[in-house]
Every structure is written in C-alpha cells, then in structure tokens.
Design goal:
Layout lengths: L2 H11 L18 H7 L4 E3 L15 E2 L1 H6 L7 E2 L4 E4 L18 E2 L2 E6 L5 E8 L6 E8 L5 H9 L1 H11 L3 E8 L12 H5 L15 E8 L2 H9 L13 H10 L1 H4 L6 E8 L24 E2 L2 E2 L10 H10 L2 E7 L4 H10 L4 E4 L7 H14 L1 E5 L6 E8 L10 E3 L7 E10 L7 E7 L6 E7 L20 E4 L2 E4 L3 E2 L5 E2 L5 H7 L12 E4 L2 E4 L22 E2 L2 E2 L4 E4 L2 E4 L3 E2 L5 E2 L17 E4 L2 E4 L17 H4 L1 H9 L8 H4 L3 E7 L8 E4 L5 E8 L6 E6 L10 H43 L27
Parallel strand pairs: 6-21, 8-9, 8-11, 11-14, 14-15, 36-39
Antiparallel strand pairs: 1-2, 1-3, 4-6, 5-7, 7-19, 9-10, 12-13, 16-18, 16-20, 17-19, 20-21, 22-23, 24-25, 26-27, 28-29, 30-31, 32-33, 34-35, 37-38, 38-39
Helix pairs in contact: 8-10
Family: Belongs to the integrin beta chain family.
Keywords: Cell adhesion, Cell membrane, Disulfide bond, EGF-like domain, Glycoprotein, Integrin, Magnesium, Membrane, Repeat, Signal, Transmembrane, Transmembrane helix
Protein name: Integrin beta
Length: 777
C-alpha cells in the first residue's frame, strides 16, 4: 500500500478527517494551552527536538494531519477531546409512569467537557406517558357581552369534568375571571356604575373588577360547579379587555392557582373581544410598567389600576417559563386576532366558540390533543458563546435548527432528538442550562465546562543539558529560568524578557522576521531562496528575485533588482526599466514638458490630479479661474476688495496683467466688486499649475445712483396728497351722513298732523280799558 494512502486511512481511523475541512487557525501561540484555545482542530506536538533551531515553538501547533506529516509521532500529539457523562438513571427502560412522579425524558442530566469550537452531539429521548396529570385553569371574560356564555358554562361543569377525566385520571380544574382596569377610559368610574356596570334591567351584575381568582385547582366537581354558579356578569366601557393582565397573574401566582410540579398546565381563555397591551395604560395615566410579579389581595389583582398592562412578549416569556400552554377559545370575529397572538406565544392553540360557548368542551379536547401530540424541544437561557442545535429523529422532523419539533406523537410513542452543543470560547467555570419540551416540567440539565489546558506527561529521563541547564521541559518545550530565553534557553537577556527580544525581530505587521527567517536572541537569521540567494535586511524584508519583469526579464534586462525594486541602468526608466529615457512626446508647442503640470515617464505625460493627457493642458474637473481669480482681478486692477491690503502676496499667481481699453474678441469673465460694479477681464493659464496672465478692462460697468432729492421730494408730496385725499374722504362721509339724517328729519316732519278741535272749557280773555279822567260830554 502506498504511504500516502496508509496515512489517510490512519487519520480516518482516528477520526481526524471527515467531510469538513479541518483547519487550525493559529493566533498568538506561546504554549500548549494557547494552542488548544486557538482552534477546535489545533493539536500540540510535545516531541523533543521537533522544531528547527531558531524556529518558534508555535510550530508545534497545527492540525493532526500536518503534525504527523512533519514527523511528529502520534503518541506525542496532545489533543483534548470532548467528554460526555450521562446521568446514571438514563436507561431507556426507566421511562415509565412512576406513581409519585411521571418521567417522560431521558437522560435527565448530562455533563459535557468541550473543546472550544468542537461540537458534541448526544441523543435525548422523549416518551408520552399515558395518564399524565393535567391542571386546567378556566379563565373567563365576564364583560356584559359574555352573558349567554356564562349561562352555558354553568350548565357544562359536569361535561367539562368528564372530558378532563377522559384525558387523565389525575386532572384538576380551577376558575378565574376578568374584565378590565376600573379607571377611565376603560371603565365608568361613577360610583353607581362601578357598583353596577351592567344595564339597568340586569338583576345579577357584580361590581367592576380587573382580574379575580375564583377557585384554586381542585378535583372536586361539586365545588367547581358551586363556585361557577355563584358568578355573575360585569361590564366596562371599551371593547378590548384586560386579558393579558389576567393571563400574567394566572401564570406568576402559581401558589394561589395551585399548579402542580409535575403536570401539564393549561389555561383555557374564553372571550369575545380583543385585549389591551403594554402602553395602553397611559390612556389612564398609568405609567409604571408591568414587573411580571404576583399581586393578589383577597383573590383580586391589587395592582390593576397602578401598573400598566404587560406586553405580549412578557406574557409569552412567563407562560414558557412556567410551562403553561394557553388555549384561546374565542368567537369567530376574534379568531384572526388570537391566531396572530398564538404565533408569538409558543405551545398555544386557538379554537372558535359557538355563539353561546356550548362547544367549549369539545374545543378544549381537540386543542389539548393538538398540543400534547406536538413535542417542541428547546432550552432556556444559554451561557455566553454557547450554541445548541436540534435534529429531530422522527418522520418529517426537518433539518437541524434552534428548536426540535416532532408532530403527531401518540401516547406511549418514543421520539428522539440529536442535540449538538458547541462552546465557542473557553469558560472560567462550569455553567448549566436546561433543555426540555415546551409546556412540560420534564427537563434535562446540561452541565457544561471547557477543556482549555494541556495535561503533559513528560518523560522521566530528560537530559538536563537539553535546556542548557537553564530550564525544564514542559510539553516538549523548554520553560526557561529567569534571565534566559530561546528554544533551549540559550539566550541570556539580563533584565530584558523574551517578548522584547522577539519585538526586535518584528516590523510593522508584527510577524517575526517577516516570516522569512528565525529570530535568534533578537536577531533575524534569514532563510535561503530557491534561486540560491538569501533574504536580507534587518527583518529579512529584502530579496532580489521578485522585481517586476518586462519581456520575461527581471527589470527588463536594463537594471538590477535591489530589495524588490528595480534600479535602472543609465538611459532607462520605468518600474521594470522597460523605457528609454525621452521626453519628446511630452513637450508642448511652448517647449515645456507636460506644461509643467506633470512628469514625463516612458515618453508619456503623467499629469497631476485633474489634468488630462497628452500635455496636461486642460482640467475639466477644476474650477474656472473666472471664479477663483475674480477677487485678485479687482485688487490688481482697482485696488479694492478683500485682498487690497496684501494684493502682491495674495495674488502672486497672476504674474502679469494689463489694463486695456478693449478686450480681445470672445466672451470675457466678469466679477462684481465692492461697489457692485461689473469688472470685465480675460485670463489665461501659463505653464505650471497656478500661473496666469490677465487683461483687465479699464472701464467698469456701474449702476446709476438714484436722485436723492427727487426721491425725498416725491415722498413728501405723496404723503401730503394721500393726507389731503384722506381728509376729503372723511369730509364726504360726514356730509353724506348729515344729509341722510336731515332727509330723515324732513320726512318725519311731513308725517306730523296738528289737531284743530277747540277746548270746550277754554274761554278767550276779555280786556276792558277805561280812562278814569275821561268824562263823556
């Protein structure tokens, strides 16, 4: 048999080769332990004299195949493998129904010692036990719309117990109810409405409440029927209910509910409406988030009006943590809502209630059968840098993933899962986590630790001079006394340490001697090349065989290779000395080389950034000098602008300018100066990057100044005219008003008629005048 075939079979027999490529990604290796930590497939050779003189001890670290290929004996290879210890009661025959505690999972404890990065797979068996105990908590919405459903459940108590007995002889049932928080806007807070939130015609109506625990788990059918018959309807304002509040308290108040340690725990929730969730409490000014703790006072949720609703994630977390499987028995209009909720809550089912909930018993039986026949294997919180995958060994089990699922598992049927655990990094101490089926108390405890240390048993007889009498052998390498370093402690370093010596052999990338030599006592001893020459330089960074070639000749045959760069003979240039020195094709009509904006290499212009060949004349991406030199034109031509005080220094790039009466034909440049005048000019770039000549038009184009006197006089006249017009308008308005009042007076005067009748008791006065001195004759 050929030697290479023998080696291949040997490695396959030892499990070294598999379908995957095994690579040792070495990092900083100073010891056997460093090697083991650096990769899952890294192993250490402890064989004496395995490394060459000057070679680093990190060469002892590689894959099994590489070390064997390099001559390391198999017995000298250190490779800590994964170790697994199963619990002593892991025999499959032990899976049975114990009278005290049923056991469905084997094994129940696994102790793993893993190499970082190297996965370990073990088998986990699960068998459904017939008659496994069941705890069923009936959680009912007692809002007013559920009145007919409450009447139905009062008559179905016997049927519900019979269905539970059909599932298991060890069944218990409890009862709880909920409505909503008793604060606005969820519930009418009028004292009368709080006491009786139902319609006035409703005789049996209990006061508003959030969540009430009515009956703890019991096997007594009469007690269940008695407590349910005592219940009456209640009410609230809005449609969504405090459903999540109730589920949360039922999950975390296990001591009140009476959940047993070893049982299938079910919450049957019946409702005809949606649910409030985290954040809705802000509508009532409730800002304190739900803390997922039990608050029961006299069987009522005492923090209902003080703590916000829980989030769906919080509810899902507590249901999973407490191994509770919810069954949502809802009306048809709510089916879609609760099916979406069921996608978030693992191990949950949704069933549609009839109008009066009379089908609830059949609904519970069907939902329980679906839940119990689906086995979902998962884990709790994992330690950092630990991964677990599950491969179901059952029909339609599917590929490996972060959960293992087997469907349609019957009573007494055994299903298995291959569980693969990987620790990506070393752990300081042993840690543990639990694996088990969702919704069930049965758990496998996994105790995990890592193997990151080497256990090296050195030969008893080792020549004391192997380490030059300055150290001891540890895992095949010398562990030197203080003041000595080297493969065999041959270097005396005084107050220095080995790291400082090795640092002297490292350049920029941190590799000793660039990987082209050995670091011996702080000095690089360079390797030889295949062509006969050797690497050279302080860090072996140079060699004379890898320069650029031209026409398959090193440096084109026109130079010598020095430290990976060509040194060209006189008259030649280029990275490979491929060109004769010439600048004929680089000269412009003016005689300059590349317009002084580049260099001539291999008879071609290599322009500075932005300028284009062949002569570096144009720069399409550069900003036009009409813009960049405008301020300098103003300064040079008219001694104004921001550069007027240091014009000669700021504008020395324009080394020549002329003031002209007219500009040459073509569109000139223009710029606005500080007086808002337009300055016209032409500018031309000379050889060089920032070298210009300009012609500036003597005459500026300035806007005419406004007539101040005309503006002021016109403004005064305008104000006067406007004032007179306003006064005339006011006068006209007053005149029109007075005229209107006069016409109204005259109209009223014409309508007045004076009476001509005489007063019967009025007599005109009679006046008689006589002269006392008069005597008639």
């Amino acid at each position: 048999m050929y030697p290479c075939v023998s080696l291949l079979l040997l490695l396959m027999g030892r499990g070294v080769l598999s379908q995957e490529v095994k690579v040792c990604s070495k990092t900083v290796i100073n010891s056997c332990s460093d090697c083991i930590k650096s990769g899952a497939y890294c192993v250490w050779c402890k064989q004496l004299n395995f490394t060459k003189p000057g070679e680093q001890e990190a060469a002892r670290c590689d894959t099994w195949a590489q070390l064997v290929d390099r001559g390391c004996m198999e017995g000298d290879i250190i490779s800590p493998n994964n170790i697994i210890n199963l619990s002593t009661n892991s025999a499959l025959s032990n899976i049975a129904l114990d009278k005290e505690e049923p056991i469905q999972l084997r094994p129940q404890e696994v102790n793993l010692k893993l190499r970082p990065g190297l996965p370990k797979t073990f088998k986990l068996d699960f068998q459904r036990v017939e008659g496994y105990p069941v705890d069923l908590y009936y959680l009912m919405d007692l809002s007013y719309s559920m009145e007919d459903d409450l009447r139905s459940i009062k008559t179905l108590g016997n049927e519900l117990f019979n269905a539970l007995q059909g599932i298991t002889k060890k069944g218990q049932i409890g009862f709880g109810s909920f409505v909503d928080k008793t604060v606005l806007p969820f519930t009418n807070t009028n004292p009368e409405k709080l006491n009786k939130p139902c319609a006035e015609t409703e005789r049996y109506c209990q006061p508003a409440f959030g969540y009430r625990h009515v009956l703890s788990m019991t096997e007594n059918k009469a007690e269940f029927e008695h407590e349910v018959n005592k219940q009456s309807i209640s009410g609230n304002l809005d449609s969504p209910e405090g459903t999540l509040d109730a589920i949360m308290q039922a999950a975390v108040c296990g001591h009140r509910i009476g959940w047993r340690n070893s049982s299938t725990r079910l919450i049957v929730l019946t409702t005809d409406d949606g649910f409030h969730m985290a954040g809705d409490g802000k509508l009532a000014g409730i800002l304190e988030p739900n803390d997922e703790r039990c608050y029961m006072d006299n069987n009522l949720y005492s923090k209902s009006n003080e703590m916000d609703y829980p989030s769906v994630g919080q509810v899902a977390n507590q249901l999973e943590k407490n191994n509770i499987q919810p069954i949502f028995a809802v009306t048809k209009n709510m089916e879609k809502v609760y099916r979406e909720l069921s996608k978030i809550i693992p191990k949950s089912e949704v069933g549609v209630l009839s109008a009066d909930s009379r089908n609830v018993v059949e609904l519970i039986k069907n939902a329980y059968n679906r839940l119990s026949s689906k086995v979902t294997m998962t884990h709790d919180a994992l330690p950092d840098n630990v991964r677990v995958t599950y491969t179901p060994l059952c029909p339609e089990g599917g590929p490996s993933r972060d959960k293992g699922v087997c469907n349609n598992v019957g009573v007494g049927q055994m299903v298995s899962f291959n569980i693969t655990v990987t620790a990506d990094e070393c752990m300081d101490s042993a840690m543990s986590f639990l694996i088990g089926p969702l919704g069930m108390k049965d758990k496998l405890k996994v105790i995990l630790s890592t193997r990151c240390k080497c256990e090296c048993d050195e030969p008893v007889m080792v020549d004391p001079q192997y380490c030059n009498g300055k150290g001891q052998v540890n895992c095949g390498m010398c562990s030197c006394n203080g003041g000595f370093v080297g493969q065999k402690c041959e270097c005396s370093i005084g107050e220095k340490d080995e790291s400082s010596l090795r640092a002297a052999c490292q350049k920029d990338n941190g590799t000793e001697c660039e990987g082209r030599g050995d670091c011996v006592c702080g000095i690089c001893q360079c390797y030889a090349l295949q062509g006969g020459s050797t690497y050279y330089g302080t860090h072996c960074e140079c060699e004379n065989e890898s320069c650029e070639k031209f026409q398959n000749k090193l440096c084109g045959g026109n130079g010598k290779c020095r430290c990976k760069n060509c040194e060209c003979n006189p008259g030649y240039e280029g990275t490979a000395c491929q060109c004769k020195k010439s600048n004929e094709q680089c000269r412009t009509p003016s005689g300059s080389v590349c317009s002084n904006r580049g260099t001539c290499q291999c008879n071609q212009c290599k322009c500075i950034e932005g300028y284009q060949r062949p002569y570096c004349l144009t720069c399409p991406a550069c900003q036009t000098p009409c813009i960049t030199k405008g301020k300098c034109i103003e300064c040079l031509g008219f001694q104004t602008g921001p550069f007027s005080k240091n014009c000669s220094q700021a504008c020395k790039s324009i080394n020549e300018f002329k003031m002209v009466e007219t500009l040459p034909p073509g569109k000139p440049c223009d710029v606005r100066d500080v007086e808002n005048c337009r300055v016209f000019f032409t500018i031309k770039q000379l050889d060089g990057e920032d070298n210009y000549t300009a012609q500036i038009l003597k005459t500026r184009e300035c806007p005419e100044l406004p007539n101040i006197y005309a503006i002021v006089g016109g403004s005064i006249a305008s104000v006067a005219v406007i004032g007179i017009l306003i006064l005339l308008l006011i006068k006209v308005l007053f005149h029109m008003k007075d005229r209107k009042e006069y016409l109204k007076f005259m109209k009223d005067a014409q309508k007045t008629r004076w009476s001509e009748n005489k007063n019967p008791i009025f007599k005109e006065a009679t006046t008689t005048v006589s002269n006392p001195t008069f005597t008639g004759e």
